[in-house]
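Progress narrative, work stream C.
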Amino acid sequence: MESKNPIERLKEDVNFLTSVRPFRNYMNISSLNKSAEYIYSRMKDYADSVYFQEFQVEGKVYKNVISTINPYHSKRIIIGAHYDVAGDTPGADDNASGVVGLLEILRMLSKNRPPCRVDFAAYSLEEPPFFGTRQMGSFVHAYTLFREKADITVMISLEMIGYFSDEPNSQHFPLPFFRLFYPDRGNFIGVVGKLGQGRITKRIRNLMRKGSSIPVYSINAPTVLPGVDFSDHRNFWHFGYDAVMITDTAFYRNPYYHSRGDTTATLNFEKMYQVIKGVAYAVYHL
């Protein structure tokens, strides 16, 4: 039976994903399928519909897992997170944290439904060697929505939402002047958008602040700045949709990025839960 304590539920899901062996990278199809089946089973408890979106890359079949609540509304919000990992790493923060956030937001919004359709997408093939190519699971999904002429308010990518630090100078930045505007302690969550999409980025930031106790900062920056387009939201930008990334800033903070040290023990589940609450609140009120 599913735990009623949300923190324990988050830990249970992260522990499952990080324990899958061989590691859930693009070479290990059986591990990706095991992860996808787990995500599907969790989604099925709360969504109105769930399905696998299968696609082929280099002769192998990969799967996105996509679920929906309020399917009869025309306007929709997409929330996505990738479940594959980079190389032989456990991928607790990158990106089991985003996946369990996706599942918990689905649970919350299934009980307190927003006045729009919400699609929840768990993506494969976000990591290298397919990052930045049309073989990314999120590119496949975004292209399908574009062809369907889906009416999308915004896509929200959950990309590493579980690593926090209160230590001075634990937060790093791509350029020194960022220190004038953002904390030097890695104890906040970021809402990242590209230039020209400041309205939606700030709207989500402000709503997340209202809906949770986590400090929330936002930035709109050119995509040439390293990290700004380093997740699945990039593919929705490609097709002209508004999209943002919710992130703990990855390698600008987490010393275990893309390493064997990215384990469950490094995550702060209490703060992660506040991020999740903030995103759910934002989606409900957008």
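Work stream C, second folded protein:
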Amino acid sequence: MSNTFSSPLAGRSTGDRLILGLAILLSLVMLLPVLWVIAMSLKDNAALMANPNSVFFPPYELTNYLNIFATSSVFRWIANSLIVSVSMTVGVLVLSSLAGYGFARLNFPGRDVLFVIVLFGLAVPEQAVVVARHQIFSLLKWHNTYQGLILPGLSSAFGVFLMTQFFRAIPKELDEAALLDNASRFRIFWKVLLPLTLPAQATLGIFTFLNAWNDYFWPLISATRKEMYTLTVGMASTQTNFAQSEGLGYLMAQAVFAGAPILIVYLFFQKYIVTAVSGAAQR
């Protein structure tokens, strides 16, 4: 009976084996900080203060994570982060897809100039417009509201650029064939072209969700009431002045707790990211 299971190294040359071994080694090196953070999050703060090397030895416990859940508002902060991140992701996908289709497929006066103006948005840091944005939102009384946290993130120059490039890569013969069948422009966009951009949308959605979930700068300015904190701002508000030295375990538990949803989202959509990146490389 032939062996149906083969080693990943079977049939590979010596060079391929060395490259694969190096890739595995580098992956382990990159994982070391993550494992370090997780191990510290499972240690008692007093034990870490007495002996930092105790992170390598048991016992390990969940006290730091239980202390996080003991914070009365933590679930409200999680809900706020989910509402903001999901709403921002959906909004960016809708607006970027429509704008990308318009720039890639429609001819209208000033299209190229407008696209260049959109690209300029990639070079403008958020800090450069935060004062004007703060004043506008103050006049509209949108601080400490969900729209105040969500709307600034809907203008994604990167999203428009990404979707424009993907729509341009789709053969225009598909549009012409659909037009011959009397399909409207919106029907062509919705039924024919949009499904073909699923890898790009998944990639853009993940990056948008990640940025929205980890955003600390704008929520810190806009959300001044405790019930409107996102998770990043809420976790920071629970730290003491000596958290860096006296509460390392609790600090690391906060990092793991806040980063876990991002890892879960990435694991679910990993294949779309790989497809999008490989497709972009081929182009």
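Residues 77 and 231 are 5 Å apart (CA to CA). No further action is required on this item.
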